[in-house]
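Today's session is about reading a structure prediction critically. Students often jump straight to the picture, but the first step is always the sequence itself: look for stretches that repeat, for charged clusters, for runs of hydrophobic residues. Only then move on to the predicted structure, which in these notes is written as discrete structure tokens rather than atom positions. Here is the chain we will use throughout the hour.
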Amino acid sequence: MQIDINADLGEGFGAYRIAEDEALFPLLTSANVACGFHAGDPTTMDRTIGLAKDHDVALGAHVGYADRQGFGRRRMEVAAADLRNDILYQLGALFALAAARGVRVTHMSAHGALGNVSAESRAVAEAVVEAGRAFDPDMVFLVMGGSALDLVAREAGNQTISNFIADRAYEASGLLVSRARPDAVIKDLAKVKARVVRAAREGVIDAVDGTPLKVTARSVLVHSDTANAVAIAQAVHAAVAEAGGTPTSLPKLLGQIQ
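Below is the predicted structure for this chain, in token form.
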């Protein structure tokens, strides 16, 4: 059983850093790098790409709404054409900096509110997929399994990887619990480990209301901005090992060359 371990990284801005990226990279197989809209700037992006290259971690684009003040977690009304171009702009920025270091962009994921809305709304999912395919017709999308983004990408003929979020609670619908709730973020290491083991072995976790929820854990995400993110990543590593899995980057998971 091969399982990718990924995190959203490069989410600082200028002199400000909110995560321990350097400590997280040795624990990851893939990274999703903020592309300047919800967080990140050219120098932060370049530094993060360098870390990915140094640690042989697959590099992906983490695209979001143009909302630095709200860290991309506020829902926004954006016309489909504008959203497509906003995403293409972010992909292009990461591509240019990555190409300068001889690193290729292997996948993309949607951040925060864009991730939530594209999971629910087919129209928004179509704009995300159109942008990704315009950048690379063979783009791989890191998605919430069964979401609108997952379905639209697969209908377009693109590969998707179901991403189980280790440190976030889920609704019975399969969507994430709102961060407005105090139980939305899971910081207890034993609980994180137990749910990753169960997700990997059984394909099931308990939703926030106790309902058994089917999940696919081909890839497991750790939020870098969670206070104890490094310890959570270590717990995820231990969970993957306990479940009999092998940490494997997204390109290798898909049989591509990394």
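Discussion point for the tutorial: The CA atoms of residues 250 and 256 lie 8 Å apart.
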